Every structure is written in structure tokens, then in C-alpha cells.
Amino acid sequence: MNIKKYLNLKSLLALLAVTVLTFQQGMAQAQDAVETVSKNDGLGKMVSYYLLLFLLACVFIGVIGKVLQVYELTRRFQGKSEGISWDKVNGFLFGFFLIVGLYGVYWSYTVQGNQILPDAASEHGVKIDNMFNITLIVTTIAFIATHILLFAFAYKYKRTKESKALYYPHNNTLEKYWTVIPAIVFTTLVVMGFFTWKGITNISPEQEKNALQIDVTAHQFAWEVRYSGKDNVSGKKNYKLIGSLGGLNNLGVDLSDKRNYDDLKVSEIVLPVNKSVRFTLTSIDVLHSFYMPHFRVQMNCVPGMSTYFQFTPTITTAEMQKKTGEADFKYELYCAKICGASHYNMKFPVRVVTQSEYDDWVKEQKPYITEQMKEKYQLAMKENITSDKNKIVSNN
Ligand SMILES: [Cu+2]
User: If phi over 0 gives left and psi between -120 and 50 gives alpha, with beta otherwise, what is residue 243?
Assistant: First the structure.
């Protein structure tokens, strides 16, 4: 073996070994530091250590690059041919990243896919899940096919000394295929979505009347829930009455409306299974969003107007606990609109039970209008009448 070449290779290997060792030491130290910091200090410091780790990795790659450059230069000075074929390296990297990337897709579908929501617990939720699954299947097939073509072509047709690029600017047939096929697929998905949503929200007056009526008011940062009581009608509210009756009337319930007196204030939403329920929603400050992911339900709560969502829950909490294998599984209502500092805390418990369990529960709920509110209201009415009389007296 040529001594010069031998020395050259030897020094290259030595340089590489030193770099790798230094990097390993640096990594180990940074890892220790991250572990200590994450135990003792806040998130900010942990982030800066990860940033340092990233910079260290960049330096490492940079050093490797320089070492290779030195290697190339020495070869050139010695009048030798190119040591590393970068076209081959690039081609190989395309093949490598195709395999790594596809494995990443497989990993995220299997590992992270397990963290997806359990089966839809409502009638319409099954339709939404079907649509979600169809979209996922179509996009996954398209994603995998196009990426295999993209990376495999770059690998297969990597530049060699013999190859020459072909000038191929246009192909009408291909253009037709990749315009028409996606257009048909996307139109089908959109039309399917349109009809599904129409099916969920188009409710006949009959269905509307027969549903269990629940009135929900969102505010920073809680939910106020009123059941409509025996008459199954929620009484009137008036925003001008919010805070009246010495601050007791936090929802602005109109006490002159008789239908309000049987309405119930609850601290938990309990729903009978397989019975249609209609939530009427509003907000008294900013936008909130009524979000019950297990039922595939989401609707904005808008100040100054009412919105609604009507659906039928199909799986009781007890059944869901068995299904998911989680003994403490609970349905919950969340706010899905970032509405302020304590937005994250806007939760409300939801429970789906059998009809008889529901009947027992609803008997124990207290009316929203308390005795104290009634007294204050009557007192206010009397004062009004007296002041009206005084007016009449003074007018005379
Ligand atoms: Cu919120």
C-alpha cells in the first residue's frame, strides 16, 4: 500500500474518532444536565438545554463536513480522482429517508393511533367517524404512493457520469389524470360531508319538541346548566336582568315567565341513554365552544344569540368503562375556544345512564330559582307598584 495514502486514511480515521468521542462526551454531559435541570428547575431551562443539544448536533455535523472536505482536498492535491461520489450519497440518502419516513408513518399510525378517541358514543358520531376514516384511508394511500414515487425516482435515477437528463416539459394525458382523479375524490368527500352535516342539523319540529331540553350558558370560566323541568321548556332569560335580585340572578332569568319556576340548576349533566337531547347554547361574555368529543359534538356559544346541538347518546358511562377498560372513564364537556386565562379549566362532568337511573337523579335536583330569589323578586315588584302609585299620586 502506498504510504502516503495509508497516512492520509489513518489521519482521517483518527480525526473522525476524536470527533465522535468528543460528541459522545458532549451528549452525555448535556443529557445529565437535562435530567438534573428537569428535576430541579423550570421548563425554560430545560428548553435552553435542548437548544444547546441541538446546537451541539449542528456543530458535530459541521465538523464531519469539514473533515470530509479536508479529505477531498488532500486527494485533489495528490492528483487523485474524487474520493466520495456525492451523487451516489444523495441517491442513497433519498432511499434511506423513504424507508425511515415510511416507518415513521407506520409508527405514528400504530403508536399514536392508539391514543385516538374511543368509539363514538352517539348516533350521528358513527357517521362522522366513518367520514373521518374514509378521508384518512384516501389521503394515506395518496401520501404513500406519491412519496414512494418521489423518493424512489430520486434514488433510481441519481446522476452518473454516463446519464444525461431528458427534456420532458409536458404531457397532456398525465395532466388530465392528476387533475380529474383528485377533483372527483375531493368533490365526493365534500358532498358526503355536506349531506352528513345536513342529516345531523336538519331536525323536524316534532323531533325538536320530543327531545330533552337543556339550556347551557357559558361564561369566563364556567358552564351554567339548566334542565327545563316538568314542562320540558326552558323559561325566558333577559340579558338586562343578569346580576339582578342582589346578584343572585347570574343568568338573567326572567321571573315573570312562569315556565322558569320548574327549571333545575345542576352541577353535572346526566343524560338518559338512547334519548334525544337538545342543548340550547349561549354565552354572556366572549365566544366559547361547547365541546363533547366522545359524542362528536362541538358548537360555538355566542354572546347575544342562541345556537343548538341535538343528538342521541348511545353508550352509557358504565358501558364505556367496560369498552375502554378504564374503570374511571368519564364523559366530559370542555370549552374548545381559547377564551381567557382559565380556559383550560372550563370543564363540566357528563354522565350517560339508563332511563330509571336518570329518573331517580332528576328528582333530586333543585330549582334554579331559589326561595331567596323569589322573596327579592316579590319585594322588588312591591316597590315598583308603590313607586307607580306615588307617580299616580304626584301626577294628580
Ligand atoms: Cu374556553
Answer: left
Rounded to the nearest angstrom, the distance between the alpha carbon of 315 and the centre of ligand 1 is: 27
Entry pTM: 0.72
The CB-based long-range contact list for 128-133 (8 Å cut-off, 24+ gap) reads: 128/196, 128/200, 128/296, 129/296, 131/189, 131/192, 131/193, 131/196
Provide the grid cell at 275.
Answer: 334519548
- Residue 396 Cα to chain centre, angstroms: 68
Query: Three-class SS of residue 308?
Result: strand
CA of 86 to the centre of ligand 1 (A): 53
Ligand 1 centre to CA of 162 (Å) is: 63
CA angle 208–213–217, rounded 5-degree value: 120
Q: What is the pLDDT of residues 247-290, one digit of tens each?
A: 788 888 888 888 888 888 899 999 999 999 999 999 998 999 99
Q: Which residue has the higher pLDDT, 8 or 149?
A: 149
Average pLDDT over residues 211-236: 89
- In the prediction, which pLDDT does 295 show? 95
Q: How far apart are CA 377 and CA 379, in angstroms?
A: 5
Please list, in sequence order, all residues whose beta carbon lies within 8 angstroms of the beta carbon of residue 105, skipping any fewer than 6 positions away. Answer: 140, 143, 144
Which grid coordinates belong to 141? 394511500
Q: Determine the distance separating the centroid of ligand 1 and the alpha carbon of 217, expressed in angstroms.
A: 12
Q: Which three cell numbers stand for residue 234?
A: 326552558
Contacts 24+ apart (CB under 8 A), 166-171: none
pLDDT digits (tens, 9 = 90+) for 218-229: 999 999 999 988
Calculate how far, in angstroms, residue 347's C-alpha sits from the geometric centre of ligand 1. Answer: 9
In the reported structure, the alpha carbon of residue 247 is separated from the centroid of ligand 1 by a whole-number distance in angstroms of 24
